[in-house]
Specification:
With 281 residues, the chain is α+β, with helices and mostly antiparallel strands. Helices cover 46% and strands 12% of the residues.
Amino acid sequence: MAFVLNKQKLTGTGFQPKEQAAIHEILTWGRQEGNNKILMFFGTALEAFHKACDKLMGRIRSVLPEGSLRARIRHTKRECREPREGTLADTLGEEAHGMVVVDCAGAPMKYAMVRDMRDMCAKQWSRLEIDAPGPRGKGWRPTHSFVDTQDDEVLDERWRRDMDLGCEHMLEESFVGGDDPHLDAKVWPTAHPHGSGSLKSEGDSGGILKYCQNRLLLLQKWFRCNPLWGFWMLNRKMKEDLWFTNFYKRKAGRRGHSAADDPDPETKLFGTVGRHIISAS
């Protein structure tokens, strides 16, 4: 069902109070698990991924201190349950091969950790060693508790499949390219709740400096109060200047530009000087 809402009152147009109450009751009933058969049949990969993360968090929640909002999982590779004596597995033992920090829902807290979660949990057997936040939330302390995905009944084959498909879906659908015209709105959706408003969403909208000046002078104080957004825009401006400088140097045949077939992607786009500046920042 879809309804057109009034922009100011955020209520449905043309509905009587009794009808609004009935619609509210229907929507509330449909959100309850097991009632909406269509959503159960057409369940998305993202919903299955969240349920898989919730199952994982249910296994590690018992060892976390009350009120803890995150945990660190150290993955230890498991080739077999009992390696034979004298074999390479017996000599090397169990080798740690990655770490992932998850939030209170069991989902990775960083985009780069999604691939690690998929490779370590869904693609092979692992022993998940759980670390809890240290005193006052600083650092990590071992809990000496672990979950073995090879023997766990909750983290079964279906759980691994949901984790695999969910991570793949997130990696493919949530990636935003640097040349996307709606880059700002996709990277900072909180700051653009009513539309795109991105730098290149409209033609001839001005450069980065005018865009930043407009956002910083708005009545909405979010842009002024978020230092991460300011540093992100500054980094974007620096990369833009370095790219154009390197491009025009190459076009004019001046010294200092990078080769068009340079194997290093940063040197190819920004030149040698730009590569050092970006690495330092």
